[in-house]
Structure formats: structure tokens, C-alpha cells
Write a structure and sequence with these properties.
heterodimer, A: alpha+beta, Alpha-Beta Plaits, 4-stranded mixed β-sheet, two-stranded antiparallel sheet, 8 helices, 24% helix, 18% strand, globular, B: mainly alpha, Formate dehydrogenase/DMSO reductase fold
Amino acid sequence: MPRWGMVIDLDKCFACQSCTVACRMENNTPIAGPHQTEQDRAILWNEVLPFVEGEYPKVRMTFIPRPCQHCDEPACVKVCPVKATYKNEEGTVLVDYERCIGCRMCTLACPYAVRYFNWYPPEWPEALKAHLNPDPEVKPRPAGVVEKCTFCIQRRRKAEEQAKAEGRPFTATDYVPACVQTCTGHARYFGDLDDPNSLVFQLAHSPRAYRLFEELGTQPKVYYLKQG
Amino acid sequence: MHPHNPHESIILAPLRVITRGDKLLWLTLFGVFLAGLVVWIYQFVLGLGVTGLNRPVYWGIYLTNFVFFIGLAHSGTFISAILRVAGAGWRTPLTRAAEAITLFSLPFGVMSILCDMGRPDRILNLVFYGRFQSPLLWDVTAVGLYLLSSIFFFYFSLIPDIALCRDRLTDAPRWRRRMYEVLALGWQGTPDQFRRLDRVLDGMAIFMSMVVVTVHTVVSWIFGMTLQPGWHTALIGPFFLLGAIFSGTTAVVIVLAVLRKVYHLEKVLTPDLFNSLRKLLIVFTLGWSYMMGAEFLTTGYGNMTEEMVVLNDKFSGQYAPIFWTMVVLVFVVPLFIFLVKGKKSLGWLVGACVLVNIGMWLERFIVIVPTEASPRLLPYLGGGAYQPTWVEAVITLSLFAGMFLLYAVFTRFFPIVPIWETAEHHVGHAVEAAAIAEAK
């Protein structure tokens, strides 16, 4: 069974935000609008976070694209009082939107701030409504529940269905999340972290590889390759 | 048969009338509570976006209220259970007034959580799908158990007095006589019944003492169990517990002083009682500041980056005004009053207790919000801010109004000073202890 993981090469990333946009279109995250965004309530499953190091004249700007880290020891899962958030057998952390009670404890437990709360019922401008992803697995979430990056879990199902239709076995390379597929600089890699022959395995073991807040013991499955 | 209590008529006097002032007060409080209910429905329909909450400040004054109400609740159990176990006989006149605070603030603690939930309609999921690893489920369990056992503890000690009401208030309206009759459960007041009641209360007091420690520790763990800077400390449990008993005991002083004045209970609630409470409060004030010192020195000395962001935010950053106000309200001024003025003057004592309660509410806020505003990812996310809206203000007010309403109504229907426990010849704990001492 694969253990899905991602590697993001910060040398290749130029913060174009395509991943953020692709994610929105794939996963039907609602439009917050300028007023709500000002209040820090925008929902962006994938965010490109700017990080300024040092002071003038020795300043350095790093951009860190941040999807859900899909931790092997997720802090969010154990605090959920109703088992609405859980880790599936392939290590992907998911939310059951029908069960979530909106207590927001997971949003506070997650050190990576990957979890978003639906402050209002979701809304889209008329023009965008026509372009919503029709997949029932990503149908818009109701108000009052928490949502987050799923590694495009619906694509995992579709990839398997397609492999079956084509009469071949499903392999780890059949499935990639939208952000990986769209990445302009080919900075993102996705695959099975348990397969020593996979590209993500090799990159995750590169001397440049590190994970966010490794000291917290959350064991994220998203690796970053240091900017050179 | 009822034990003879020379103050019986004084204690029963408030039960014989319901004044115009009462009705006006009840109506006003009920109005405020209803307003809160309407606003809560408004929030439910529109979404939690109508509050000032955001990312990263996901929990605001609803959670502050929750912790505060549960804190208030601790007074009752502390005075009636812990002091009962300790055999402190002076507590008897206070017990019911204190326990009533427990009983009437707990439901509003629970309601605070309901107000905070994104999907209160799914509350039963906690029962169907509960995950016992989650501190929130520990909370639900602990608070639920506490509420349930408080109701029984309160009711049991009320039975002899309900029976007294049944026998004495014969000119009350029919429905009221009927209510006393049903609630008294046919209590006759035989020595055997009193002995059994005392045994039950003694046993429950031990259990309640343990529950009270557990509950507030567990309340703190919904914060302490996360890895957030400022929350993730072992001291948070004992700190919350002490703060709870502190604010609860000051609430008892306020309530007693009001009852004493309004219901003319000067002969029953003597200055001695207040003096005993004052001494306890001195201990709590000092204990609270000791924990404050221990907590902040450890954090500050360690000087870890994320922790220091939160600490500096409290000491000199955007939360400094609230933080220092809190220190003045909870520690500096009250300690001075307790030591110097409070012994002679009840007015000063009550004033100090009001300050402590305001300060403790701010303290809860200061524990909860600054940590959220400065998460680990802060350098990436930018500073968080939180400004409560009118929705949160109205709901908060309504919860307090609801609590006052229950309390005010209760005191007109049931004796707020336990008549049988303060009687001259009662087989209970205090008298028995005195008899044993005499025999020696």
C-alpha cells in the first residue's frame, strides 16, 4: 500500500501561485471576497507563504508553498472529539464534513495552520459557478465545518477507475494532486514514500531535504528541498 | 420533625413575598437572556462569520466565558465539599449560596460551548462518534459528570429544608405547596433519615472534591494539550484550578453580601463568616501570583523564540494593557484591600471581590487569545488580531443574565441559608465533631 508524500523544491519554485489557483478550481474552495480576506478568513488549501529572513542590507526572501503536511503523527486527528478528521490507510489526513461539529480544536492544534473554517456558507460569483468541479467528492462544504487539503483524494479514486477501465493495474505514478500537475517550475513531486525506487523517496532522502517544524514530532509527509 | 433553628423565621422571610422589584428584575434579566437567544439563532443562520473570530484566533470570548463560568462553579463545591471533608464547621451558612452558584453557572458554561460551535446541530456526534483521545471529549465527560453530581449533591442537602417549607409555608399558592410536597420526597426528619443524609453527603463530598480538581484541570487541557506556545505547559492545569477557586470564592462573597443586604440576613450571615472567607482569599491571591511568577519566569528565562513572542505580546505588546489591568485587578488592589481594609468593612471586601472577578475574566482572555494570535507559523502568516463583535457581546451578556435570573428566582422559592445545617441540635457533621471534642 502506498504512503503518499510530496516533495517541493524551493530552488525551482518562483512563487507564481499556480498551485494555489489550481487547488481552488479542483477542490471548489469558496471565494472569501476582499472584506473577509481582510479579516484573515480566506480559505486557501494551498498557500504560498512569504518568509523574510534578516534585515536590510542583508535580507533574504523565501517563499514556502504550504499544502497540508499530511503528518504521520497528526496533531489534528487526536484532538478531534468526533473522529471527523482521520488518517486513511494510505496516510492521507482527511475530514468528514458531514460529521464535523465545528469546534475548531484541530485548527488550533495544527502547527502548520493548514486547516480552514467555513465562517459563512460558501459563495461564488455567477461567472465562476459554471466552472465548479462537478465531482461529488469535492462538493462545496457547508458553513460551520473545517476543511483542508486532501492531496486531491478524488483524483486518487479517478486514477484507479481509469486504470481499471484500461485493464491495467493502478500504480503510484497514476495519481498526482492538481498542484503538482500544474506547477509551472516543476518544483513539486508526488508519489509513494515507501517505494525506494520512487522519485519522491529519493528526493526526500536528499541532503537538501527538510520538513517544517520537524522538532515537534509530527512526522510530516511533505518535504522541502532547501533553497541553494 | 424539624431541628430547631432560632433564625428560621429570618431565613424563611424572603420566601413569603415576591416584590414588584423582583418581578421587574426577573423580567429584565429574562429579556436580556431572550435577546441573547435571538442573536444566537441569528449567528446560527448566518454562520460564525458574524463574530470577530478569524484565522488564527479561532477561539475568542465564548471560550473565555466557558472557562470563566466553570471557574465560578468551583466555589460551591470548594466551600461545601472540600471544606466539608476538612471539617470546617464555619462553612455551613454559606454552603447553599455557594452551591447554587455552582449549579447555576455550569449550564451557562455548557451554553458558551454551544455558542462557539460551528455546527451545534451535530452535538450528538459527541455521543455517537466520541474520540476519547480528544481533550474536548474529556471536557464533555468531566463537565457532564460535574453537573450531574452537583445537581444531586445540591438537591440532597436541600431536602430537609424543602420539607420545612412544605410544613411552614402553608399559606403559599397551591402549586407551590404541591411543588414542595413532591420535592421533599416525603421527608419526615427522623434521626435515622438525618444520619443517612449526612452519610450520603459525606461520601459525595469526597467524590465531589476529586471531581472539582479534575474538571478544571481538564478544562485547561483543551489548551495545554496542544503544542501552541504559551499553552503547552504542565502548570496550566493547577493554574486554572486555583484561578477557578479564587474567582469562585470571590463570587460567593459578592452573592452573600447582596443576599445579606436584600433579604436582611445580617443575623445569619455574620461578619465572622466574611472574615473567614477573607483569609482564604488572601491565600488564593498569593497562590495565584505565585503561579503567575513561576509560569512567566520559567518561560522568560528559557527564552525560546516562539514562547517569547507570546510573552512579549502580553508584557509589552498589543495585549499589555489588558495584561497589566488584569494584574492590578486580580493581585495588587485586592491583596491590599484584603489585608488592610477588608476586615473592618464589608463594602471594601465586596469591592475587591468585584475587581477580582473582572480581572479573572480578563485573565482567561489573556491566557487564550494572545497564544492564538502568535502561532508558530507567525513569521509566515503575519500578526493575528481579534476584535469581538456585538454578537459576541450580546450573547455574553445574556449568559450572565440567565445565570443571575436563575439565582434570583431560586432565592425567592427556597431558603438560601441551609436551615437544618445551621440548626442548634442537628445530628450533622459540625455538631457531631463538636460533641466528640466535648467528650474528650
